[in-house]
Amino acid sequence: MTTPQEELLPGTRRALLHRIAVAQAEGRSPSLVATVVRGGRAVWHGSRTSVDGHGPDEDVQYRIGSITKTFTAVLVLRLRDQGVLDLSDPLEKHLPGTGAGEATVAELLSHTGGLAAESPAPWWERTPGTLRQKLTDVLGEQPFRHPIGRRFHYSNPGYTLLGALVEKLRGAPWEEVLRREVLEPLNLRRTSVQPQAPHAGGWAVHPWADAMLPEPTEDLGRMAPAGQLWSTTGDLALFAAFLTKGDDRVLGARSVEEMRTPAAPTEVVDLVDGATYGLGLQIQHRDGRVLVGHSGSLPGFLANLTISVTDDVAAVVLANCTSGPLLAGVGADLVRIVAEAEPRIPDPWQPLVEVDASVMELVGQWYWGTHAFGLRLMADGLVSLEPLSGNGRRSRLRANGDGTWTGLEGYYAGELLKVVRRPDGSVSHLDLGSFVFTRQPYEEGPSVPGGVDPEGWRGIG
Predict the structure, then answer these.
(1) What pLDDT is recorded for position 4?
(2) How many helices, marked H, and strands, marked E, lie in the chain?
(3) Measured between alpha carbons, how far is 159 from 169 in angstroms, rounded to an integer?
(4) How far from the centroid of its chain's Cα atoms is residue 404's Cα?
(5) Is the peptide bond between 387 and the residue preceding it cis, with omega within 30 degrees of 0?
């Protein structure tokens, strides 16, 4: 008897339950709920609670704090994909008069706009949004803390500006645009700006006593695009699947991949931690795998969404306490448990549907100087250029339809590969961003810059 591929094995399920039980007990959280996603669907759900006979399920809402930023980023990328704006546009072009208009849209998305981390006092997370009715109330008299574009500095006001940008360009409130363009198409029926029953209550747990204090639940007003949303593990499981594969009704696969791509300068401390930021997504290197997602916190709540695209595994963890379990670590552990205990089964190999003879003559071994590379044509129509030994420069390249190719990652990202032919039409060499690749190391002929010594290769004598 075989186990259906979508089901987790009993040992895996127990390891997942053990991990969240330890997190809830040692983190002293009134409740903690988690879901694991594999293959685009939820395959495990678990919860722990201090209330006898009651365990929250995947339909109970918790406040998700800054995971809201990822939703706001999706709205902005939709505007870009529809040609309404460009990520390189300064904010001033579309939303004039903010006092922070020099920062580009991309810089605001990646927290490199130089803006302050928080709005002026009083602390916005525990006070009514009515105290900050205008953008100037959010930004204050001196909105910048760093030169624009020079460093990553997490900024809640920056995402408030992005929410205002969405409202300006769509002509509707942020929450209405979010519901219409993201929540409804993805069937996230339990994600909302205001709490909807059943929902958890937010608590502060005393650091030196096992005692609790209820936290206030404020409407964040202008700051909503930075952290207002309530959601469930069930809805965030669907959102994780979307961030992995994309959905053409909302954002295509290439755009969500762009969100997952590092976009912020990495400082030394972040380099040590293996952490950086994309466009509305946190990126971390942990346990030998790249994890993307976002954490969130507001008084009374903690939240985490963690995705390993390579393993096709994601985890959602929510808790109702102001501080306690480190949910980023819990989420990473849940992903690791499944990925290691039940590694992803690769899709079956599939051959090309059609073979282009003009591309086939390019595949095989090439040399940049004396460095050996292999060029391979893949089933998805891309070609990959990889060193035959060591960890040298490598990239996939996409055809441009005119006989040239554009690099997609690494050193060759954005660089143009041109096929240089002889007068008889045969391939002479490849030119990749001015680097010449020949079929033999330093092949004789006019293709090698500086020419080749006429005496050719020789020994030491």
Answers:
(1) 42
(2) 13, 19
(3) 15
(4) 29
(5) no
Reading the block at residue 8, the tokens are 């987790």
Burial classification of residue 333, based on how many CB atoms lie within 10 Å of its CB (0-12 exposed, 13-18 middle, 19 or more buried): buried
Q: Residue 94: what are its φ and ψ, rounded to 5°?
A: -110, -25
Instruction: Tell me whether the omega of the peptide bond preceding residue 265 falls within 30 degrees of 0, making it cis.
Output: no
pLDDT digits (tens, 9 = 90+) for 84-105: 999 999 999 999 999 999 999 9
What dihedral do alpha carbons 222, 225, 229, 232 form, nearest 10°? 180
Residue 206: its H or E element: none
Cα separation, 361 vs 382, in Å, equals 15
Contacts of 79 (CB under 8 A, 6+ apart): 85, 165, 166, 169, 170
Token output for 458: 């020789």
Question: DSSP assignment, residue 90?
Answer: B
Q: Is the pLDDT of residue 392 over 90?
A: no
pLDDT above 70 covers a percentage of the chain that reads: 98
Show Cβ contacts of residue 286 under 8 Å, excluding neighbours closer than 6 positions: 274, 332
Q: CA-based angle 252:255:257, to the nearest 5?
A: 110
DSSP 182: I
Report the distance separating Cα 118 and Cα 102, nearest Å.
19
What is the rounded distance in angstroms from the CA atom of residue 423 to the CA atom of residue 275? 51
The single residue listed with the structure tokens 């993201």 is 182
Question: What's the one-letter identity of residue 451?
Answer: G
CB-CB contact of 66 with 117 (8 Å)? no
Contacts 24+ apart (CB under 8 A), 351-357: 351/379, 352/377, 352/379, 352/381
What are the backbone dihedrals phi and psi of residue 43, each rounded to the nearest 5 degrees, phi first? -120, -5
Rg (CA), the chain: 26
List pLDDT tens digits, range 160-179.
999 999 999 999 999 999 99
* Whether residue 6 has pLDDT greater than 80: no
Q: What are the angstrom distances between the C-alpha of 294 and each of 227, 327, 459?
A: 12, 10, 58
